[in-house]
Amino acid sequence: MPQRHRSEAATPSQQPPPQSLSAGRRTVGVLRELFPEPPEPGTRRLPRSLSVLLQVAAVLLGVLVMLVRVPGRNFPAWDGIYAEDLKIFLPQALQHPWHLLVPDDGYIELVPRLMAQFVTYLPLREAAPAFAIGGALVTAGCALFIFHVSAGHVRSPLLRFVLALAVVLLPIALMEIADSGVDAPWYMDFALFWACLWRPKTRTGMAGAAAIGFFTAASTLMSVVFAPLLLARVIALPRLREQAVTAGWAAGCLLQLPYVVSNLASVQSRAGHPAAPGLVFAFYGHGVVLPALGWHLAWWLQSAAGRNGATLIIGGILAVFFLWALITQPGRPRVFVVAALLTGLLFAAFGAIISSNLPGLPVTEDIEHGSRYTTLPIFLIDAAAIVAVDSFIRHRQLRLQTVAAVTALVGVLSVGWITDFRYNGFRSDDATNWPPVAAAWLHACQHTPNGIIHEQAGSEVLKPIPCARLRRLCLTWVASGSPPASVNATAPSCCYISIKQDYHTGACPGPR
Q1: How many CA atoms lie within 13 A of 92 on its CB side?
Q2: Which of 58-62, 222-226, 266-270, 306-310 has the weakest average pLDDT?
Q3: pLDDT computed for residue 12 by the predictor
Q4: Average pLDDT over residues 399-407
Q5: CA 142 – CA 133 distance, rounded (Å)
Q6: Which residues are CB-contacts of 224 (< 8 A; sequence separation ≥ 6)?
């Protein structure tokens, strides 16, 4: 009897069942809906130079809007330096230049430390404006990035502009994350979500996606929430060239890994005391669903219906809208809505779990502890609504229906954008007025023989500051023989002091 080939001798049990093969293919097909090819550029395109000019102008306008949105306490927002920018990043950048991989609270924050390092090359007086402008620049840059890479899901340029506005005008952002170095990575999470869905066609695009993945993962522990989305990308798009963002994110996570593992073994680790599930879901309901349409709108509703009642009202409105989208719209927007809402839920839940003390803390109109964990989920609710409306108008022939749908969407979103455009939050209330602090540092350096000062910023006792690394504006003034007429006794610069004390010798004593 002739010997059969191995392939012919395969038993039925070794062959994949048709049902499972079909289910697997259907799953891959559904997942591929999350990662559409970007549309081909239209024939009517702006000249490249004009396009670049308009985009630069849009970013600068976004920076200006972000700076205007944050009110100060008797000083402008750009004179206030916030949280770890002052307590940790700036002093450590002065003490140990380019020591970027230093953990804080159990993980590294690469982008804030990079920002602080570049700030040290500016005159000390400009540190607060540099942090504020740098944070605003990250926000505006992420908004522009999202405008471009969301074209696969949002075909209407007008609605993509609305999506970019949702980044810059996010109502809850003023509570913590606006205009600072330490909180810039929270905006990068917005960009990373869209980078996970984007399919760049050029090497430049792939490099940009990889950079977003790397710098976000290397700056915040929250980026692990995107693991399911990136796993879906690997399954749906197995080709290596489609995994630039995955590779960048994985590299950033590998950079974080030893610091996170070391922190898990310490007694200070928050992982050993996770929040109870009930508190986590309450945090999502009260911190994400309730203020989804506006922070002050949520408080007005609470005054009438109570906190739980207001949450049910907003939650009911969102549930009806998204159920409509899931029932009436085709596959791609349905899959996006599910992915966006689930990612937002995971993000808020993970933040509440690792910061177990936050969900139980009291919330007031001026203070919400842990609001940074609600920023991406609220933005993704906006994004899901925009994608659903874009799908609706794409299949409408009647212009009146299109105009009505877009007008209704913008009208609902703009309630929060208008009422919450500018208000006091952590970013305003906890910022330190920087010019007097800078003046005190520079003045102390004039009287410190060893070149090391120990200063305070409010109630914070800062680590030793090496005077030799403080940059000042005085060298050209001394060389010219006289100070500018605008300099007065309150100017936050030791150069004026040195001119007063050593004017006849033309020297500027102390560190340069």
Answers
A1: 19
A2: 266-270
A3: 46
A4: 87
A5: 14
A6: 253, 350
Sort residue 249 into left (φ over 0), alpha (ψ -120 to 50) or beta: alpha
- Residue 99, pLDDT > 60, answer yes
pLDDT of amino acid 491: 37
Contacts for 324-330: CB closer than 8 Å, 24+ residues apart: 324/388, 325/384, 325/388, 325/391, 328/392, 329/388, 329/391, 329/392, 330/391, 330/395
Q: Are 399 and 436 members of one domain?
A: no
pLDDT tens for each residue of 171-207: 999 999 999 999 999 999 999 999 999 999 999 999 9
Across the chain, mean pLDDT equals 85
Q: Please report the DSSP string for 263-301 in residue order.
A: HHTSTT-GGGSPPPHHHHHHHHIIIIITTTT-HHHHHHH
Determine, yes or no, domain membership for 10: no
For residue 363, which phi and psi values (nearest 5 degrees)?
A: -120, 130
Q: How far is CA 106 from CA 265, 371, 403, 490, in A?
A: 10, 20, 49, 41
Q: Could you give the CA distance from residue 366 to residue 121 in angstroms, rounded to a whole number?
A: 35
Contact 178, 15 (CB under 8 A): no
Residues 380 and 443 grouped into a single domain: no
Residue with tokens 């005008």: 169
Inter-axis angle of helices 227-236 and 244-264, to 10 degrees? 150
Tell me the residue range of the domain where 442 lies.
432-502
418-433 pLDDT, tens digit per residue, is: 999 999 988 888 898 9
Provide the domain count of the chain: 2
Tokens 């102008």: give the residue: 57
Whether 493 maps to a domain, the answer reads yes
At residue 413 the predicted structure's pLDDT band, cuts being 50, 70 and 90, is very high
Q: Are 342 and 484 within one domain?
A: no
pTM, to two decimals: 0.86
148 and 239 share one domain? yes
Cα torsion 407, 413, 418, 420 to 10°: value is: 180
Say which amino acid occupies 284: Y
